[in-house]
Write a structure and sequence with these properties.
With 350 residues, the protein is α/β, with parallel strands linked by helices. Helices cover 32% and strands 30% of the residues. The chain folds into two domains: 3-171, VC0802-like; 173-349, Rossmann fold (3-Layer(aba) Sandwich), CATH 3.40.50.150. α6 packs across α7 and α9 crosses α10 (315-324). The structure holds S-adenosylmethionine (SAM). This is RNA methyltransferase.
């Protein structure tokens, strides 16, 4: 028997996250993509969904309502959909993912995008009121830190109500002890690794590795021959070393200038990197000079059939520099990072 689940991702990375789900659990069937959500059916055990790398959170679906109207009647619809939901099988899924533990406390988390004639809080209250009737008496409603979280999500007429199977370690990872200001979300780094079409023969380079997130996530996705990384800042390199150690991943890390790498020509098969961008790091002019120097060096060290996956908010600038330097972009994935749009480019030499 297959059950309905959904994965939450960074908005823009839904299809990519679903491709990982499909590759990991082949019998999965897509039901629908929504903004930052992939809704799917699968007969797999719920605990298998907790090992995904590109997904931020996973839910067992209690209700999927299509075409919810904006008016106040909608609150009654939310209430009755919650009352009619199969809470016990969703809780059973939660328990499987938590080594059989029994939840003692619960709460409702609500998220709403788009305009409705009611407030997010009122929508959350409609769901809470219904759950008070169906939750086992032994479980207590709390404000924060609940064992069991029921999330209500409203967006563009679709509503999802689900039991959250994952916890914060799914998106934040346990290895990531050290951060730098421009550090990438692990799920985004994993998405870049996924877009680089991983093979066990890969020699992967992140020339501007920061806290090491991209290389660590690539190694966690699957086997790799070798991983190399470096950063201009030696303290950052030390921090990447500590993260790599805590993730138990083998990466050769050095302090270097990515514009002049101590690597042989054509010595790596994949470059996966998060370029310094925007106001966060460097001005536009500085970025242009840096990007031009970087692409020449990347061109030198990447093997002839190699692939480059790069992330930047300086979309137009990077696009132009890639074209001017004889690169072809096979795919571009646009999503939102730190409140601004960013693009992941999958490129090869033309
Ligand atoms: C956007 S951050 C990378 C963040 C990294 N992906 C992470 O998750 O932590 C860019 C990094 O490039 C480094 N950097 C800037 N210019 C560099 C250069 N010329 N050579 C090497 N590293 C450089 C910065 O020190 C910074 O750590």
């Amino acid at each position: 028997m297959s059950d309905l689940f959904y994965a939450m991702t960074m908005p823009g990375l839904e299809t990519l996250a679903f491709s990982e789900i499909r590759a990991t659990i082949p019998e999965t069937e897509l039901v629908k993509f929504m903004r930052g959500i992939a809704l799917f059916r699968t007969s797999t055990l719920p605990e298998n969904l907790l090992d995904l790398h590109t997904t931020e959170d996973v839910f067992a679906t209690l209700a999927h309502i299509k075409g919810l109207r904006r008016g106040p009647d909608a609150l009654r619809v939310l209430h009755s959909a919650t009352l009619n939901a199969d809470l016990s099988s969703a809780v059973a899924s939660w328990r499987r993912g938590h080594h059989g533990a029994r939840p003692r406390t619960w709460r409702v988390v609500s998220q709403m995008t788009g305009s409705y004639d009611f407030r997010r809080m009122d929508a959350g209250q409609a769901v809470t009121d219904a759950l008070r009737k169906s939750m086992p008496r032994s479980m207590r409603l709390v404000e924060d830190d609940a064992d069991l979280e029921i999330w209500l999500w409203l967006g563009g007429g679709d509503v999802l109500i689900g039991v959250r199977l994952s916890d914060a370690t799914m998106r934040h990872r346990q290895y990531k002890r050290e951060h730098i200001p421009a550090s990438l979300r692990p799920t985004v780094a994993a998405s870049m690794g996924w877009l680089a079409r991983p093979t066990a023969e890969d020699i992967v380079l992140d020339p501007l590795c920061g806290a090491g997130t991209i290389l660590i996530e690539r190694a966690l996705l699957g086997p790799v021959q070798q991983e190399l990384g470096g950063d201009l800042n030696s303290q950052t390199v030390n921090l990447a070393r500590r993260n790599a150690r805590s993730a138990e991943v083998d990466i050769s890390l050095k302090t270097w200038d990515a514009r002049s790498l101590p690597l042989e020509a054509s010595s790596v098969t994949r470059i996966i990197t998060n370029l310094p961008f925007g106001k966060q790091i460097g001005t536009r002019e500085e970025n242009e000079a840096l990007y031009t120097a970087l692409i020449r060096e990347f061109d030198r060290v990447l093997a002839p059939k190699g692939l480059m996956v790069s992330l930047t908010s300086e979309d137009r600038l990077w696009d132009r520099i890639l074209q001017e330097n004889g690169w072809r972009t096979q795919k571009k994935v646009v999503f939102v990072v730190l409140g601004q749009p960013a693009s992941i480019f999958v490129s090869e030499r033309a």
